[in-house]
Amino acid sequence: MRGEYSTRQKRELLKFLQERGMRHFSVDDVVFEMQDRGEKVGRSTVYRYLEQLAAQGSVRKYQSTQGVTQYQHVEDAARCGGHFHMMCSRCGDLLHVDCKLMDTLSNHLMAEHGFMLDPRETILVGLCERCNGGEAADHGADGVEVCDHRL
Amino acid sequence: MRGEYSTRQKRELLKFLQERGMRHFSVDDVVFEMQDRGEKVGRSTVYRYLEQLAAQGSVRKYQSTQGVTQYQHVEDAARCGGHFHMMCSRCGDLLHVDCKLMDTLSNHLMAEHGFMLDPRETILVGLCERCNGGEAADHGADGVEVCDHRL
DNA sequence: TTGCGTGCAAAGGTTTTGCATGGCA
DNA sequence: TGCCATGCAAAACCTTTGCACGCAA
Lengths: 151, 151
What we know:
Structural class of chain A: alpha/beta
CATH topology of the largest domain in chain A: Arc Repressor Mutant, subunit A
Oligomer: homodimer
CATH superfamily of the largest domain in chain A: Winged helix-like DNA-binding domain superfamily/Winged helix DNA-binding domain
Radius of gyration of chain A: 17 Å
CATH architecture of the largest domain in chain A: Orthogonal Bundle
Distance between the termini of chain A: 49 Å
Largest interface: A-B, 42 and 41 residues
CATH class of the largest domain in chain A: Mainly Alpha
Strand content of chain A: 15-25%
Order of helices and strands of chain A: HHHEEHEEHEEE
């Protein structure tokens, strides 16, 4: 069965994910960082393992505008499944938004547009508070912005 | 200077864009449709001209999850800049949503989360009505769903 | 020992580029 | 005629896949 063995490569990659936090990265980022550390990991292995992790929900995939697949670590899949994410197009930061208004939007899209919005796949893109020139945002102790605003 | 000459290929491609409305398409779509019409246009030419149009803002580029670049004609940049897009993760269809609720969301994210949402970059991902098992959605004559729902 | 995991190289697919030719002004 | 535009083929990229070997359990 898949993911049965614990190997050096997997451990290295998991360590990389830990250290990376939730900032996005490419396969190249992994390969080169491993190289710098002197812990070489084959490119196919990185692709394959990230694919596995994506399937089980602990990393997320999306396409950058440059056509390079970007990955991002989701520390707690169950916890992150219920809320949405905003990505800053300038600094690349990924923010979590646990906002009631997003539920309203989901319901609306379903009822009025027949579209079932997927919180796991959707990333709201824009400029975060810092990059937008505002004050530093309070992203909360664990990085999740909780908001009960309902309109 | 670029875009100086009017050629058969450019005229054909512009005609294609007109007819296509705002529905998205790939380079292959263009090449094959031209072929069917008996008006062959080289693939590189399509890439190059679309790149030019993208630079001047009359087409927009997206990256599908399958790694194929999707293009979309922006008849009126101001008009399409103001609405959002939903992509079906199963069939890859790109839908336009001109929905007042999205404005509400934008304003809310700005006011409460300090996040400036970018309609051009953001794509809502989920399942479209067809793929979700519902009836066929009415995507409107030009493929744009207009909705004045305000809550 | 068993069979999953890894790495290399090759294949596959998309997009870009070099260069000679074609065609607009 | 002067140059931009085009098309072909090759190159450049990114990702996937086949296969033999390595290694965890």
